[in-house]
């Protein structure tokens, strides 16, 4: 593998599981920081802001600046500003199904949040308070011409207690009742990759993606000609490796093992 240009490191299942740091994560970031290799923590999870995640890490003994954290909510804002059509519709109002990380990012970026119907934009992210009324509003808004975006289509996400339904489960319910497919702004979309590189102020040169999910992290790397490391600390198990459609450059037990192989 050529000299490292930068690391894009997934969060859930790689750095932490739920609110618990995965063993070796602190040492892994010590090695990364000492090496001087640029890095960005990336996540499809839009429920928390970078500030919240940074504080959560700090409380666990891991120092990560908020500027080093890039969420699918940030990728959404990048996407909405990337095309005149998207921007024009978003300025009509955004109906956001999601939690603070998504809502805060949209508000800070100057978009008006709607609580009822809109002809502007509907975006669906992970929302633990998702209910039938929110589904009805999303359906009717899309039927009236609103553009449909999804922060991600992950079926599940890893926690200390095991897997929980992901944003993809919510997105599928909106797809089922509208017949519309969303614009995907999270991994493995090219929008997310381009937005992440923009946040790092980098070009696509010798970038390595480290993640636990083949269909998002590894697929994004493969689509963009990057090297990748699949870690087994999240949703993927050893027994699934022979069945993978998206092949990583190599497999590691966890982030620490991956970083040692890449940097030492």
Structure report:
Helix 1 runs parallel beside helix 10 (255-263), helix 3 packs parallel to helix 5 and helix 6 (132-143) crosses helix 7. The chain is an alpha/beta fold. The protein starts with 5 loop residues before the first strand and ends with a helix. It has ten helices and 15 strands. The protein folds into two domains: 6-71 and 188-263, HAD superfamily/HAD-like (Rossmann fold); 73-184, Rossmann fold (3-Layer(aba) Sandwich), CATH 3.40.50.1000.
Explain the layout of strands and helices.
Layout: E1 6-10, E2 16-17, E3 20-21, H1 25-35, E4 39-43, H2 50-59, E5 69-71, H3 72-80, H4 84-90, E6 94-97, H5 100-108, E7 113-114, E8 121-124, H6 132-143, E9 147-150, E10 156-159, E11 162-165, H7 167-178, E12 183-184, H8 190-200, E13 207-211, H9 214-223, E14 227-231, E15 250-252, H10 255-263
Helix pairs in contact: 1-10, 3-5, 3-8, 6-7
